[in-house]
Design brief:
Layout lengths: L3 H9 L11 H10 L1 H16 L17 H8 L5 H8 L10 H16 L3
Helix pairs in contact: 3-6, 4-6
């Protein structure tokens, strides 16, 4: 886990990560439901798809569209355990995310989505 400002500086230099944007559908959803509700959804997604110690489909568990949190996860490299390890220094396979790590992931997603909210 790291300082969010330095993380976002690094993400901004990645051609892949910096290409993600909310499309009209996801933007309307975010603005209609509100940031807090979307972050509640993000927390559920993290708990179900990212936090377990063993994820059978790691690297493919986060869709690339249809929810603002999914887009934010790809933009911030919080989409799979390999990305969490590479970009955030959070241990990968075989490690269940701690409550603090889960909170950190939500804070990263919050920072990215806040630019749209």
């Amino acid at each position: 886990m790291q300082d969010l400002d330095s993380l976002f500086e690094r993400l901004g230099k990645s051609a892949f990560r910096s290409r993600f944007r909310l499309r009209t559908k996801e933007l309307e959803y975010l603005r209609g439901k509100g940031l807090d509700t979307v972050l509640d959804h993000a927390r559920s997604f993290i708990d179900e798809r990212l936090a377990p110690a063993d994820i059978p489909n790691d690297g493919r568990q986060t869709p690339m569209r249809n929810h603002p949190a999914f887009i934010a996860q790809h933009a911030t490299a919080t989409c799979c355990r390999k990305c969490l390890q590479k970009w955030h220094g959070i241990p990968g396979e075989g490690h269940e995310l701690t409550p603090e790590e889960r909170d950190y992931v939500v804070s990263v997603i919050r920072k990215w989505l806040s630019a749209y909210a």
